[in-house]
C-alpha cells in the first residue's frame, strides 16, 4: 500500500549483537524466526535493545512479533490469518465496526492483494486504519491524564 521497504520489519526485530538484518537477503529472515511456542512477552524480553525501550517501541515490536509468528515462510500473512489476528488480537478495536462501511472497505482490500496475502507494511497500515476509525479510539482520547 505505501511502497515502503521491508527493512522496517527487520529493524523492529533486530537483536543486539547480530549483524544488521537489512544487509541479509530476505530468504534468511525465516531462519531467525522465533518458535511460536515462546510467548510474545518472552520474545520481547529477549530483544536486548528493547530492555529500556519506550512503551511505543515495545508496542510496535509486539505487533512485529505477532505478525512474524503468524506469517508464512515468505513473510506474508494469508487473508484468513490476517482476519483471525484482527478478531483475536485486535478485537477491542474491531468490535462494533462490522457494520461500518469504512471497516467493510478495509477488509475488502484484503481481497485485492495478490494471492490474498499481506506483507508487514500492509498489515500495519490495516491496523492503523482500523485504530483511527474505531470507537475505542474515541474512548482513549477521552481518558484524562495527570501531568
From TrEMBL:
Residues 14-35 are annotated as: Disordered. CDD domains: S-100. GO terms for molecular function: calcium ion binding; calcium-dependent protein binding; transition metal ion binding. It comes from the Eukaryota. InterPro entries: EF-hand-dom_pair (IPR011992), S-100_dom (IPR034325), S100_Ca-bd_sub (IPR013787). Residues 56-95 form the S100/CaBP-9k-type calcium binding subdomain domain. GO terms for cellular component: cilium. This is Sentan, cilia apical structure protein.
